[in-house]
């Protein structure tokens, strides 16, 4: 009988395999879940479904796990490897019957009493088909395809036919039977507890995947119009604009229609198919780091707010695609109103985008509607994604954050959300950004093009090999915990008072800074950024391949031994392979002579490469400062380096959103120095640190490293020189005069990047000077050169190329 069943199982499994495509989560269960393949493994599945078993078998095969249909041997006997909580529903009733699993595990725990050394790993496996959330008014067909906990075989047939390509097999941390057997109670009670916990676990898994109930548009509109804040704003609009109550309500409805998403799960599924093909066409792969963080938050019932950096319009698609393939419900996405154009706006809206204007100033009704909509998303349990920078970075550096959305998030949390709210910073990186050419034109003064259908179709036409994409989920930030640490008695705030609490603005600013530092802390090193960093640091922007490989090998080795953070990621492949795959993207000029291959920037391409370098430059700021000090002074004591770091790090931290405190930066510098010495990148001569001998291969690596931050030191020198010349002047004058001089230096000495004289970057440095009291600010806002300013100038000057220093000293008012 067993053989006959096995035969028919094989026969029917063959066509089912053609209908389904399995996605296993996580991809590496040993690293993430701690599963030991050497120990006996049992699988615990929710429903005894034939198609679920086929999916599980395909998944375990791809992961190198034991076949779920095989037996497992322990204590000299063979046992089943896969167990089920429930049987499928029958055709004519929705009643779900349990299996005999309680008796099975009762017997198993009884065996443990006699054999305490026995230890089996029970892995709960949740298998899902489709991910449609519930709806207030589902159609009959939607009901048919709804993936219930234990559907009948007929319903499951339709589910597999229509949703077989949207199958997820999600593994959870293994339960040790040895540890379970040691719990208090009888064997039967322990077995009942295991089954009860497993049932709850599977229910939470389902909620994590499908998300909350979708609201009908009419329900959404009525909910927003009925809120106290919107009703008060409509009354105020009617009174101030001298319009009728109906007209004020009509305007509010118009704002709701302009803002609100119209999420359609079917579009997400179609988008997944389309994007899967696009990614396979243009990317060599998408590297995802620390995804276990968001799965744990979702499993624990957190409201998740994704807060990524903004590099490209591709961000909207890439991050949503990754979240979808991590087995989580895709978020509602805050998008600029500029993207709400036909036909893209409607597509984005049905994909979960909600639109916001660049400014809310002066429009109280719009502000009230938007805030209430955001609070509604939070309270209903929808995950949300928004960009703290407000717009895409044109330089590759993180932009100073816009705090409006973060402020509304805190205010919503104050009013009370029924579950914990966690902000997840996300680092996005690319080996090629499709808009990078237009970014450079905008930095040079060309106006930004308005988004249009023609732009979209032009971008699609130009899609080609973009290398790798990188998505790293940073350390989550739980809002209540953040407020407990930074705001005293915040829970006593009167949420019915329309006035903002006095602590809100400083708390939001602190929150924004924390988010940005956590984004940069999760940076992903990649081949294009690393090669760009090296070539832009060389005098002629050309290197032999041997020099390039040696330099990158030294840098990657250094960062592996002294990592910038636990969240940053470093390429796994060896350096030569990394260089080969990067050059295969054809972003760099290559030539061959009698001594080997040469790598250079392409004509007029150096400016664009600064974008990729700037994505990772903060990881090299302190190593570069160490190297620059040693080269500038020939010999230097470690104490002098640490003192300089103490002086300059607060400025670097402000500009590059670095996560160390000053004390941590000094400790990290000591670790870097020790690692650089162990790798021959620095030499110890008595108390002094020196560079390697020119004949040593590490010499060129360290020399390049010393030049990585050169434009930053030059920019600092320009601002300080302008202050020194004028003694005192207004901030706008300081920025304007500094921009003029920086642009002149760029022309004279061939600086590669327009950001060198970008007003926003210069303004960030001026802010850092003020915050660290390195210049005097008078009552009228005038900035004054001080003794501290002069002391800083004396620290900066040795780091700057002598010809630049000489030119700056010759400049007069």
Quickly list its features:
813 residues, alpha/beta, Glycerol-3-phosphate (1)-acyltransferase, 4 domains, 8-stranded mixed β-sheet, 6-stranded mixed β-sheet, 34 helices, 25 strands, 53% helix, globular
Describe the structure.
The longest helix is centred in the first third of the chain and has 24 residues, at 187-210. The protein is α/β, with parallel strands linked by helices and 813 residues long. The strands form six sheets. Strands 9, 10, 11, 12, 13, 14, 15 and 16 form an eight-stranded mixed β-sheet that branches. Strands 1, 2, 5, 6, 7 and 8 form a six-stranded mixed β-sheet that branches. It folds into four domains: 13-210, no CATH class; 263-521, Glycerol-3-phosphate (1)-acyltransferase, CATH 3.40.1130; 527-707, no CATH class; 710-810, Orthogonal Bundle (Arc Repressor Mutant, subunit A), CATH 1.10.10.10. It has 34 helices and 25 strands.
């Amino acid at each position: 009988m067993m053989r006959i069943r096995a035969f028919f199982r094989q026969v029917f499994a063959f066509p089912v395999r053609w209908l389904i495509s399995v996605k296993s989560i996580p991809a590496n269960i040993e690293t993430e879940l701690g599963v030991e393949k050497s120990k006996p493994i049992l699988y615990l599945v929710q429903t005894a479904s034939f198609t679920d078993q086929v999916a599980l078998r395909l998944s375990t095969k791809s992961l190198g796990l034991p076949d779920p249909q095989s037996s497992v041997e322990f204590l000299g006997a063979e046992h089943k490897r896969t167990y089920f909580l429930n049987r499928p529903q029958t055709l004519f009733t929705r009643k779900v019957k349990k299996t005999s699993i309680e008796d099975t595990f009762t017997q198993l725990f009884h065996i443990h009493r006699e054999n305490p050394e026995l230890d089996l790993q029970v892995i709960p496996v949740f298998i899902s088909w489709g991910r449609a959330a519930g709806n207030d008014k589902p159609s009959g067909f939607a009901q048919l395809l709804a993936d219930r906990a234990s559907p009948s075989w007929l319903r499951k047939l339709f589910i597999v036919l229509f949703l077989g390509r949207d199958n997820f097999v999600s593994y959870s941390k293994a339960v040790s039977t040895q540890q379970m057997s040691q719990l208090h109670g009888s064997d039967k009670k322990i077995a009942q507890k295991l089954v009860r916990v497993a049932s709850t676990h599977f229910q939470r898994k389902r909620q994590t995947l499908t998300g909350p109930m979708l609201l009908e548009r009419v329900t959404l509109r009525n909910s927003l119009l009925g809120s106290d804040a919107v009703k008060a704003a409509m009354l105020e609009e009617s009174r101030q604009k001298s319009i009728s109550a109906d007209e004020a309500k009509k305007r509010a409805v118009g704002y709701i229609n302009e803002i609100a998403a119209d999420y359609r799960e079917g579009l997400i599924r179609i988008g997944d198919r389309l994007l899967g093909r696009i990614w396979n066409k243009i990317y060599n792969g998408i590297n995802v780091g620390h995804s276990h963080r968001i799965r744990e938050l979702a499993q624990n019932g957190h409201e998740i707010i994704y807060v990524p950096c903004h590099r490209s319009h591709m961000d909207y698609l890439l991050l949503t695609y990754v979240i979808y393939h991590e087995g989580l419900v895709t978020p509602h996405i805050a998008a600029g109103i500029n993207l709400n154009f036909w036909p893209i706006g409607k597509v984005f809206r049905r994909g979960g985008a909600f639109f916001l204007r660049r400014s809310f100033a002066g429009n109280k009704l719009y502000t009230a509607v938007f805030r209430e909509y955001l609070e509604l998303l939070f309270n209903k349990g929808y995950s949300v994604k928004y960009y703290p920078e407000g717009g895409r970075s044109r330089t590759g550096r993180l932009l100073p954050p816009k705090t409006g959305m973060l402020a509304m998030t805190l205010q919503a949390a104050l009013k009370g959300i029924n579950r914990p709210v966690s902000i997840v910073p996300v680092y996005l990186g690319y080996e090629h950004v499709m808009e990078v050419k237009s970014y450079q034109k905008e930095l040079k003064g060309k106006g930004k093009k308005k988004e249009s259908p023609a732009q979209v179709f032009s971008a699609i036409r130009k899609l080609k090999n973009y290398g790798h994409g990188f998505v790293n989920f940073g350390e989550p930030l739980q809002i209540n915990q953040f407020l407990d640490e930074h705001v005293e008695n915040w829970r006593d705030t009167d949420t019915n008072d329309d006035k903002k609490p006095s602590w809100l603005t400083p708390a939001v600013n602190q929150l924004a800074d924390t988010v940005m530092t956590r984004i940069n802390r999760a940076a992903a090193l990649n081949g294009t950024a690393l090669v760009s960093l090296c070539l832009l640091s060389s005098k002629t922007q050309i290197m032999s391949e041997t020099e390039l490989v040696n330099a990158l090998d030294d840098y990657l080795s250094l960062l592996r031994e002294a990592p910038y953070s636990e969240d940053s990621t470093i390429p796994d492949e060896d350096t030569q392979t990394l260089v080969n795959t990067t050059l295969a993207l054809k972003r760099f000029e290559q030539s061959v002579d009698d001594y080997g291959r040469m790598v250079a920037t392409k004509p007029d391409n150096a400016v664009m490469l600064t974008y990729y370098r700037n994505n990772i430059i903060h990881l090299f700021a302190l190593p570069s400062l160490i190297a620059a000090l040693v080269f500038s002074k020939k010999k230097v004591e470690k104490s002098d380096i640490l003192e300089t770091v103490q002086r300059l790090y607060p400025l670097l931290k402000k500009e590059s959103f670095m996560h160390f405190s000053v004390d941590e930066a000094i400790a990290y510098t000591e670790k870097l120095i020790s690692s650089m010495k162990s790798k021959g990148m620095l030499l110890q001569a008595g108390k002094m640190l020196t560079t390697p001998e020119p004949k040593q291969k590490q010499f060129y690596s360290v020399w390049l490293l010393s030049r990585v931050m050169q434009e930053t030191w030059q920019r600092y020198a320009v601002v300080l020189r302008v202050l020194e010349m004028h003694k005192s002047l207004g901030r706008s004058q300081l920025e304007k005069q500094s921009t003029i001089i920086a642009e002149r230096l760029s022309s004279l000495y061939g600086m590669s990047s327009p950001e060198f004289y970008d007003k926003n970057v210069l303004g960030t440095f001026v802010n850092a000077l003020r915050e660290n009291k390195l210049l005097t600010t008078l009552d009228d806002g005038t900035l004054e050169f001080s003794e501290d300013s002069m002391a800083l100038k004396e620290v900066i000057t040795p780091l700057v190329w002598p010809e630049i220093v000489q030119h700056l000293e010759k400049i007069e008012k």
